[in-house]
Amino acid sequence: QVQLVESGGGLAQPGGSLSLSCAASGFAFSTRIMNWYRQAPGKERELVARINPDTDNTDYADSVKGRFTISRDNTKNTVYLQMNSLKPEDTGVYYCYGPPGYWGQGTQVTVSS
Fold first, then answer.
1. Local structure of 66: helix, strand or coil
2. Could you count the other beta carbons within 10 Å of the beta carbon of residue 101?
3. How do residues 61-95 score in pLDDT, each as one tens digit?
4. Do 63 and 89 touch, CB atoms closer than 8 A?
5. For a tag site, which of 56, 65, 67, 98 has the least CB within 10 Å?
């Protein structure tokens, strides 16, 4: 069955960095667009970044452009999110998303001094 396991969250200071990973299994990872979403407390889940199957094309929410980088390793069935210059408003639970309807458990990111 489809499994998405996020890791790498934690506490960071404003201006700091965190690197998230999502290990995928149960589907043809190398053929799927992969996405990172986040959900802040009291807010709806929002798309943060997406990457197409062959890694040539990426897309970012305006709020993270120039600070976050999405990448993938199709040999490891893993998608990554490098987050730099973190801001308090980046706080939330981060999820990866691929095949429709399947979500991982998410990983908490907290940006605070």
1. coil
2. 6
3. 999 999 999 999 999 999 999 999 999 999 999 99
4. yes
5. 56
Q: Residue 106 is encoded by which pair of tokens? A: 């998410």
For residues 4 and 78, give the distance between their C-alpha atoms in angstroms, rounded to a whole number.
Answer: 9
Per-residue model confidence as pLDDT tens digits over 27-67: 999 999 999 999 998 999 999 999 999 877 999 999 999 99
Angle made by CA atoms 107, 97, 86, in degrees to the nearest 5: 45
The rounded distance, in Å, linking the Cα atoms of 39 and 105 is 12
Amino acid, res. 71 = S
- CA nearest 74: which of 22, 20, 29, 10? 29
Asked if residues 58 and 43 have their Cβ atoms less than 8 Å apart, the reply is no
Phi/psi for 31 (5° steps) reads -105, 0
